[in-house]
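This part of the workshop introduces the protein records we will be handling. Each record describes a single protein and holds just a pair of labelled lines. Instead of coordinates, the fold is spelled out as a row of discrete tokens. To make this concrete, we reproduce a full record directly below:
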Amino acid sequence: MRGIDKELQELQDFIEQLIGERENVLRQEMNSAVEEERRRQQQQNISESAIAERMQIFYQEQIAALNAELVEYRKQIEAERYSIRARLQTLQEEYRKNFAELQAERARILEASRIREADIYAEAAARLGALESRYNTSRQSLTEVQEELRRLAEDREKAELAENQIAGFFGLVNKQIKERQFANASKSLDSLKQFLETPSLQHIRSFLHRKEINRAAVNALRQAYRRGVGQSGRSRF
């Protein structure tokens, strides 16, 4: 029984570790965003007091967003923990019940007949061994769930990084179009379409859900441009 209690504690420690790692990542991203916003504000030729006031508001918004995402992330992790805990507790109760029944059965067997003791004890031991085997199988299942939780956390970080890169591509294309760098804008769109097919991202569900939207946005942007200036022959955009 101590083994199950230990597994539950290890699961709780693992979840807290995941949440801590996620919080560190989010805080690093938030700090980068705050510094970027500060630089942007300083370039607008406004007073330090105005910058300080705007940065205070921006910082509070970032903190609120960070806390909201941590709450949601904790809910998802806790849901997995409760599911695993329930399975382990069910196994724990089943183990206790079966163990008590086996002990009682053994006592009755000894009282009823010493002659059949060896055979019946072997049968009881076999049943107890099967129960222990189920327990070991559950421990293996717990390890697999932990690996799945870690994989999901890694996939989520990959998807967020990919979305940031995609946003960067769109920002670059927008800037190039405004500056009439049409050839460069066309190359940037090609690079973006190629990035959307990155093999290491094709198994991430959230990325695939937005992939078609991003691909449609690329096609719409290219078609809109062609309708506007493509007929003049001045660009191959």
Summary: Residues 2-232 form one domain. The mean pLDDT is 79. The chain has one domain: 2-232. Residues 170 and 189 are 8 Å apart (CA to CA).
